[in-house]
Specification:
By secondary structure, this protein is of the alpha+beta class. It has two domains: about 130 residues, no CATH class; about 120 residues, no CATH class. About 30% of the residues lie in helices and about 25% in strands. Strands 1, 2, 3, 4, 5, 6, 7, 8 and 9 form a nine-stranded antiparallel sheet that branches. The N terminus is likely disordered.
Length: about 260
């Protein structure tokens, strides 16, 4: 009796393992979702005062990254692309509203494109997760990131602005401000001071909006602070418009 050739069974084994991993991943995502109901769009909409404009009510931001990873690629590139395994997949959600009278937007977007090659595969990513508040008047660009950044919770400045100061030693000790206009720091210092209690934050003021951004590694942490961040963004936006910051009480912050 001849030995069964190894090359003939290898594709079967690979396909079988891939199928098991896919099924396990989908099951794991469903189980995890049961522990994070507060991050479903329908629950977030109620807590943040927003309306769902893209995504289903049961879509869960806390498990969105896992869901994306276990989603199969949709084929692209015609016959050649099908042979090479080319494909794209996209996970997204969007909510919008005006809980304090100004436009507030919550966006999750993850696009991934796979292009197979004879020597190497190329995977490109486009990711965005942000909570944003619109500002009615022009204002100088700025960014705020933690001074002592933790592993896997890093915020990289993106506007190329010079280092600035809040004019408050206690705030400057924990928060780093980038701004070309030196008036920005002293104006925002009293409002952004509570960020010292946040494990992660990345505030970007640019082009009529103030954003709280996060990336693939920091999103799961940032989600726990959405309600508090929404209030901080409202206060920041009011100050940038030359209005008094409303006395918005921050909700209790998660404990480690």
């Amino acid at each position: 009796m001849e030995d069964f050739p190894f090359w003939a069974i290898t594709p079967v084994v690979v396909i079988g393992l891939a199928s098991l991993l896919y099924v396990f991943g989908r099951k794991s995502t469903r189980l995890n979702d049961q522990g994070y109901e507060q991050f479903r769009l329908v629950n977030l909409a109620q807590r943040l005062g927003l309306q769902i404009v893209d995504g289903t009510p049961d879509f869960n931001l806390m498990t969105a990254l896992g869901q994306h990873q276990t989603t199969a690629y949709s084929g692209t590139g015609g016959v050649v692309g099908a042979v090479m395994g080319d494909g794209v997949k996209e996970t997204r959600a969007r909510m919008i509203g005006a809980p304090f009278g100004r436009t507030v937007e919550l966006v999750f977007f993850y696009n991934e494109h796979f292009e197979g090659g004879f020597l190497e595969n190329v995977v490109t990513h486009a990711f965005e997760c942000r909570l944003s508040a619109q500002v009615a008047t022009p204002f100088p660009d700025f960014e705020i990131v933690p001074r002592n950044q933790k592993q896997f919770l890093t915020a990289t400045p993106e506007l190329g602005l010079p280092l600035s100061s809040f004019g408050a030693p206690g705030v400057d000790a924990s928060l780093v401000l980038f701004a070309a206009d030196p008036r920005v720091g002293p104006l925002l210092a009293p409002i952004v001071a509570p960020l010292v209690s946040f494990p992660f934050y990345h505030l970007v003021g640019h082009n009529g909006w103030v954003h709280s951004r996060s990336d693939q590694t920091s999103t799961l942490t940032a989600l726990y602070y959405l309600e508090a961040m929404e209030r901080i963004l409202e206060q920041v936006a009011c100050l940038l418009e030359g209005k008094p910051a409303p006395a918005l009480r921050l909700p209790p912050l998660p404990t480690a």
